[in-house]
Amino acid sequence: MRHLILSGLVAFASMALATATSVRAADDETQAVKAAVAKFHDALNTLFTGDAAPMKAVWSHADDVTYMGPVGGMQVGWSQVEPYWDRQAAKKLGGKVDPVDVHITASPTLAVVHYYEKGENIINGKPQPVDIRATTTFRKEGGVWKVIAHHTDTLAYLQK
Q1: What are the E-state strand segments in the chain?
Q2: Three-state DSSP class for 58?
């Protein structure tokens, strides 16, 4: 009887330890993805000044990446996404956009992040509000979280 109880306690302790370890790992991934979201938005805000380099650095350069941003349309593959960022940087939209109400779902190699992008751009010297829904998908490549998809609502002032 003691052996049975002891075996049960050992099994329970092992399960509790395994659960705690996986929760810590999930928390670590969530924190790493949260940092990747911040880095993406730092790159976006730098893009608004005319510099596309940081944005290009946070993206995967794979053929399966997709971008559906506030201008509309869809770019598929790095060969379409990369020149898009150059065109957007050339607009020098100014302003700043931040992620708000961020919800992260992460595994060890893939993460999906839903949130709002809020802030403003400057068009012809006038502030234009940004308040759109966004989803960004990340994949861990070489130990680094890279953007593989970004999808937002459209902004009328960018579709002209």
Answers
A1: 66-68, 75-76, 96-106, 110-123, 126-141, 144-152
A2: helix
Distance CA 21, CA 43 (A): 33
Which residue ranges form the domains of the chain, and what is each CATH number? 28-158 (3.10.450.50)
Lowest mean pLDDT among 7-11, 42-46, 63-67, 80-84: 7-11
Distance CA 126, CA 20 (A): 51
Name the DSSP letter for residue 49: T
Contact 38, 46 (CB under 8 A): no
Full-model pTM: 0.82
C-alpha–C-alpha distance, residues 118 and 95, integer Å = 11
Report which DSSP code applies to 104. Answer: E
**Cα dist from 54 to 5, 33, 99, 127, 155, whole Å:** 58, 17, 17, 24, 23
List, in sequence order, the alpha helices (H) in 48-154.
53-58, 78-91
The string of pLDDT tens digits covering residues 92-116 is 999 999 999 999 999 999 999 999 9
